[in-house]
Amino acid sequence: MASNHQVSKTVQYNGHVFERIRVLGKGSFGTAIVHKRQHDCTLVVLKEIDLIELKRDTDRRAAIQEAQIMSKLSHQNIIKYYNAYTTETKLIIEMEYARLGTLHTYLSHQNRPLEEQ
């Protein structure tokens, strides 16, 4: 009989240990996965970008540039960047987990337009 129990997976990047919780979504450049950071139990998102799948150099540079740009942004309405890690085949971007979901999800659940303040 098959079990519906999902086995957690622990990963480590540069000495930082993360426990895999669930996949948030997949995009053209990678997969966003919720993890629990072991040292402080904070939920974070690790965006894993498979550099092997990026055939063109321009796509690889764009992925790396995304991490560089995120590292320079700091605003209350922008997902926080925490760190970036690389392996032989992947770029991993560690960022804030938005518990309430995306802005798109939030707006789609509103019964009325947002008012300007």
UniProtKB/TrEMBL annotation:
It comes from the Eukaryota. One of its GO terms (molecular function) is protein serine/threonine kinase activity. Pfam families: Pkinase. SUPFAM superfamilies: Protein kinase-like (PK-like). Residues 18-117 form the Protein kinase domain. InterPro entries: Kinase-like_dom_sf, Prot_kinase_dom, STK_NEK. Keywords: ATP-binding, Kinase, Nucleotide-binding, Serine/threonine-protein kinase, Transferase. Belongs to the protein kinase superfamily. NEK Ser/Thr protein kinase family. NIMA subfamily. This is Serine/threonine-protein kinase Nek9. It comes from Aceria tosichella. The gene is NEK9.
